[in-house]
Amino acid sequence: MLCSIVLLYCCSSAGVLSQLSIHSRHGRECVSPCFSLQQRNNSTSPKIKVDLDNSTGVAVLRMQSPPVNSLSLDFLTEFCINLEKLEMDKSCRGLDIITLPMYGKSPERCGEFWKAVQEMWLKLYGSNMATIAAINGSSPAGGCLMSIGCDYRIMADNPRYSIGLNETQLGIVAPFWFKDTLVNTVGNRAAELSLELGLLYSAPDALKIGLVDQLVPEDQVLSTAQDTMSKWLAVPDHARQITKSMMRKQTIDKLLSNREADITNFVSFITKDSIQRSLRMYLEMLKSRKA
Amino acid sequence: MLCSIVLLYCCSSAGVLSQLSIHSRHGRECVSPCFSLQQRNNSTSPKIKVDLDNSTGVAVLRMQSPPVNSLSLDFLTEFCINLEKLEMDKSCRGLDIITLPMYGKSPERCGEFWKAVQEMWLKLYGSNMATIAAINGSSPAGGCLMSIGCDYRIMADNPRYSIGLNETQLGIVAPFWFKDTLVNTVGNRAAELSLELGLLYSAPDALKIGLVDQLVPEDQVLSTAQDTMSKWLAVPDHARQITKSMMRKQTIDKLLSNREADITNFVSFITKDSIQRSLRMYLEMLKSRKA
Amino acid sequence: MLCSIVLLYCCSSAGVLSQLSIHSRHGRECVSPCFSLQQRNNSTSPKIKVDLDNSTGVAVLRMQSPPVNSLSLDFLTEFCINLEKLEMDKSCRGLDIITLPMYGKSPERCGEFWKAVQEMWLKLYGSNMATIAAINGSSPAGGCLMSIGCDYRIMADNPRYSIGLNETQLGIVAPFWFKDTLVNTVGNRAAELSLELGLLYSAPDALKIGLVDQLVPEDQVLSTAQDTMSKWLAVPDHARQITKSMMRKQTIDKLLSNREADITNFVSFITKDSIQRSLRMYLEMLKSRKA
């Protein structure tokens, strides 16, 4: 049983429910009709909930964003555990959302976190599965990274939603592999402008520069993703996988040979007093906006 | 006498007549008013027919696609002989169309064929001549490769025609230099989507992603190509050639230093039982469609 | 006092006044209310005039193009002296316009000139300042290079203005770093077409391929540039600068490790009899057009 399709619903910064659907090619063979991983989780507000629908072979992984969207190392860890559990059915791969979990953490904690982010991206961008991002919320920073790590992006045509690698706006810098993924998606110039200004794009603007592939009414995001899924599943797996690897290998190899330096660089940057001040201000701004 | 422009009519999978026009800068000096190479050809259904019009200095090379468009090593060879003959007038360079000639062949035959395909692409993509693809038919796979190997692409605005590197759909994989040529033409993201799904684009969609440069009514493809030709001929040859080389050298060098590995890779892939089954099914589907 | 924004008005080949505005982040601290560098200049027709407006913190650097727009080594030198003077206020960086100053010069002079062009581009493309090109005239060749060396391009929507790296039309070849800058701006395919044909784009066409970012009525070029400037200044400097460097470093390093070879190549090419003939014809054509 090989998992072939991932549907992913990126979380909204307003805390909107996010979903990640994992499609098993041979879903009907799945043993667990409703595999709710959060039941293993002591948290009363579980970060992740997974339901595998045997009739469609689609496992829906829901990501409930915590306040100020601070999806941290905890989330990454929980996410990975969940995915490993699903992988016991050989039906899944790792995905994630990261946003701003590096405020007020020790260098060790930051390094650990960043390694987890790298791991998530390496697995997602290099996944043999066809991966489709179904974006029904805003996707700043890590949410955007996760989206552009997929094979195809469908976004809700909702004027309140935005998407982008906005790190620069927060005084931090998207690392080279965020940049490479963005360049691969929207080209060098749009990536340059986007990263230098830390732009968040409205859905129509995101479509215009190619940051997403398709806009649909919000209530059709899931069904469109499922229709798109069928199209991708109709392509011979082996040829598609080799082709995908050919397209992405160089970008992935670049991080693989620079992981440690990238972690060191991230930690030394993020633990700077000035950066921490900048992040604190940003988090407070987000909190006050919600209040 | 130096040949400066190539007009190329890609063959339709429906067997529509395809043409390759070779323009001699000093056409009026040409010795042979109508240089019909197929007269040297014993075949009663010649694959290639060349006519050199002295009044315009344009040699028209017509490619009549055989059933199921299986333009094989035979075609490549005949094509090269024809071009060598034309080169005796110092008026031409090599071009080709390849589609699906690697079904049911021995590994040696496949290797020989693939080397010829490489040769064709190296000559075309690196040609000092200005090369203009005038596409009046569908251009899947090798036909598309030939088109994107040219300097400019004019396509008939006919809803029945499509163009694309659709190898993935057949269960095979476009090699890295097909991919590089496509990336150079439409950018990384459009190439990725196109190759992962093996997409064939309608003429308007091809224009939209930049796979072709211009659409014109079918009966104006040739005249538009000739007008475009004049524009290209007005640019100083030397500067244009150095510029073209600067743009394409890196891509060409990459194949040059990997030819043997690329052939080995192609042969070992294409002779796999599973791939041969997939190709047989595709050929049968094409045959039944024509029947 | 750190200079953060550069406004640049590219010169028109028709001799239209061109302006370069240099914005000081802490302009109000500036000592010189009107810093007219041309007063140091014996020329009765100064090439460059700088006025620093204390109320806005914007220093306006005006470039008056001489006949046939032959902005030469003299101009580059004068420009650099002016900028050094402004830098005494720590408020500025170097910029330039080069067009066709290499006709009829000795190899030594050509080499010296080319080195100055390299220097200008290295400083501009790698500048820590946000740089905005406000284009209120035609920007062929070096003018275009200067524009695409900036971070953002605003062009007057005037049908008489064009922009492009048109070197090929003159029988010369844009060097690899012109090409790299253009590829980074408009992508590989548009750059290829543009460079092979030496195309000059009308304002709308330039917008379409991404050679400029925005068109505005001619009388709004400056105000739009100033509005845009505010947007860029709102982004944390440090993050923007690191991001810019990440985007451009590879391209800059490529020239840095090939400067001598690039100069040698340029000089040997430009001093060829055939090229000099071609340039003379071009200059004469420009002169007769003005007469």
UniProtKB/TrEMBL annotation, chains A, B, C:
Coiled coil: none annotated. One of its GO terms (cellular component) is mitochondrial matrix. One of its GO terms (biological process) is fatty acid beta-oxidation. Keywords: Acetylation, Fatty acid metabolism, Isomerase, Lipid metabolism, Mitochondrion, Signal, Transit peptide. Gene3D superfamilies: 2-enoyl-CoA Hydratase, Chain A, domain 1 (3.90.226.10), 6.10.250.170. It is found in: Mitochondrion matrix. Key enzyme of fatty acid beta-oxidation. Able to isomerize both 3-cis (3Z) and 3-trans (3E) double bonds into the 2-trans (2E) form in a range of enoyl-CoA species, with a preference for (3Z)-enoyl-CoAs over (3E)-enoyl-CoAs. The catalytic efficiency of this enzyme is not affected by the fatty acyl chain length. This is Enoyl-CoA delta isomerase 1, mitochondrial. It comes from Oncorhynchus mykiss (Rainbow trout).
